[in-house]
Amino acid sequence: METKYIFVTGGVVSSLGKGIISSSLACLLKARGLRVTIQKFDPYINIDPGTLNPYEHGECYVTVDGHEADLDLGHYERFTNVPTTRANNVTTGRIYQSVIDKERRGDYLGKTVQIIPHVTDEIKRNVKLLGNTGKFDYVITEIGGTVGDIESLPYLEAVRQLRWEMGQNALCIHLTYVPYIRAAKELKTKPTQHSVKQLQEVGIQPDILVLRTEHDIPADMRRKIAQFCNVSPDAVIQSPDVPSIYQVPLKMHEQHLDEIVLRKTGVPVEGEPDMSSWLKFLDHMDKAEETVTIGLVGKYVELQDAYKSINESLFQAATYNDHKLNLVYVHSEKLNDDNVNEKLSGMDGVIIAPGFGHRGIDGKFVALKWCREHDVPTFGICLGMQCMVIEFARNVLGLADANSTEMDTTTPHNVIDLMDEQKSVTEKGGTMRLGAYDCVLAPGSRAAAAYGSTEVKERHRHRFEFNNDYRERFEAAGMRCVGENPDTHLVEVVELSDHRWFIGTQYHPEYSSTVLSPNPIFLDFIKAAITYKHDKQK
Ligand code: GLN
Q: Which residue's alpha carbon is nearest to atom 6 within ligand 1?
């Protein structure tokens, strides 16, 4: 069948969850046996979000092929179980860079280079890249930002043109917000009407409206919206708040979103989507009564999205272990020897977060020393793993000034050091060791047992590494390097042999954990935390 294109735009306010709606639709279409991918177009000028700090745009996600991407790609993977690549995330920066490169090469020789048609053509070319591979029946394109933003205008113009060119093979879903005014005890549809008008002004008539709401929107109100917005009444769908984002696909299916999409794109509607594995996951979620409490030690505790993939991986792992997750953020900048007992003694497991730079690092060492000495299940990810190594060097090996050269270039014991390949790198954007690399795990290690395999492939985002000159000393004292890259011998996993669960990974296992395929090391960590919780109660 010809590839169908679905465009998802948003209006009224940001943060409505276009990514979740796109992912939910993809999940349903995939469960109908269709081949689906989702891509995100971000209107900002950065080439990629790798140079944005989490205050700006939440977590930076990493694809298998080493692209630093918008965190929505994480949702896409978690909901569809289909890996994304560089082609799934395009920014205005990338579009302009490519247009300007073409101009310098002489591709437009003699022409004035303009937003229309050159920038819009470049957007259209990128929209069609994944579809042109022949690998997908549906390509869902999420347009970042909110309708009415100056920045998103070229994207909307490209969508307008594509819809016109593609006819029934293209469709537009517009996501808006229906606020509830408590004083008047009323839901208000006017912002939706205005937002749709704005979209119509740039020449786009939405085919489907998804209304985010905190209260049930009565059928007559949905009919009124349909009438005002030129949308068929069955295509006005509400998306109420639900306890878990993983329930959204079912909410959408109840209102036939997948069927409407098939019908409007001329694809026969046959049977029902096979959501059995998904429902099994939700069933675990419903049945979970006991709680496992995990402390996440990091410096971005006030930001919901800074550790998004870690949160979701923990939630998936807790759910499959039939537990509710109680995730407690522990501010690494505020943690010290005097309060660590009070802050961490209620935890069944502790995660030491990834990160960059010096801020909050001392609190991570305090947490690690306490966890190591109290035999608490502890999981260090990337910078968290590097901190495990440094804390061990200082307090067990007796190398008082041991450090990472990221924090102290003059340390006499550079147990974590810049990778050789990084030494000549001066530019910041896209230059880290990125993407999936092989890791071989030592047979008999806790990590190998967790994965049930000695060969794994996980994603990376770092410049520094374990300094192999110190390897023997660490191993002799009980910190084993149980995972390494088979080609470079870069240390990927460390673990303490005489501890119930103390593992650090240089890679980020959180990027590959999905609802239908939760990451084994998170599953094992949560299992250890549950065992520890029960042991404490004995
Ligand atoms: N700052 C460390 C490095 O670059 C760790 C990075 C991370 O935690 N993602 O190696």
A: 462
